[in-house]
Amino acid sequence: MGDSSREVAPKTQGAVLKWQAPIYDLECALVGLRKKFRRETLRHAHLSPGEQILDVGCGTGVLTQWAAEKISSSGRAIGIDPSIPMIALARKKAARAHSQAEFKLGVVERLPFESGHFDGVLSSLMLHHLPAELKRQGLGEIHRVLKPGGRLLAVDFDRPGHPLWWLGVWPQLFMPALVAHIRGEIPNYLRAAGFRQVQAVGRWFSLLTFWEARK
């Protein structure tokens, strides 16, 4: 699994969650991102046994572990994150659960994998942590490591689907990392990265969108 205490945190211009690691799963549960949300994410991902899957911005590794179960021992699920505390916790949880999921320190703008390696990439609530240029670089890297015909399943903030949400999110229009989301521009970023089949396949609380994008 690796010893994160001897590893060096990679440099990135994106947000890195460190002190949140011990309470991250609780925070997700408190805002409604429980097991049902993870199951919905994997339902849209259409994982199959034997596939090579990458989870970018894996956090504590919950989704990566579930993906590993879906693809079985004949496949491989790898989660990357720039946060040493997150990766350390993900590895501990995987070891306790006897999960086949693997975890590495890494950043989306420099994915440490060869081109055309993965059948699928998962990105769950990661994109909004990246400023605009880093979104472009990161999505370009995701496109690079996917096999021809491979797909990205990304879930993140989108233009609110209910008027009441605007009361809470309009200040985000002044935050560089989130403005593209609130304006509904993420499909444009996906197409600019080289993805040719981009579609919204689901919504969550009228605020998050599940996008499928194919190479």
Automatic annotation (TrEMBL):
CDD domains: AdoMet_MTases. Pfam families: Methyltransf_25. GO terms for biological process: methylation. Transmembrane segments: none annotated. Residues 53-150 form the Methyltransferase domain. It comes from the Bacteria. InterPro entries: Methyltransf_25, SAM-dependent_MTases_sf. GO terms for molecular function: methyltransferase activity. Keywords: Methyltransferase, Transferase. Signal peptide: none annotated. This is Methyltransferase type 11. It comes from Nitrosococcus watsoni (strain C-113). The lineage of its organism: Bacteria, Pseudomonadati, Pseudomonadota, Gammaproteobacteria, Chromatiales.
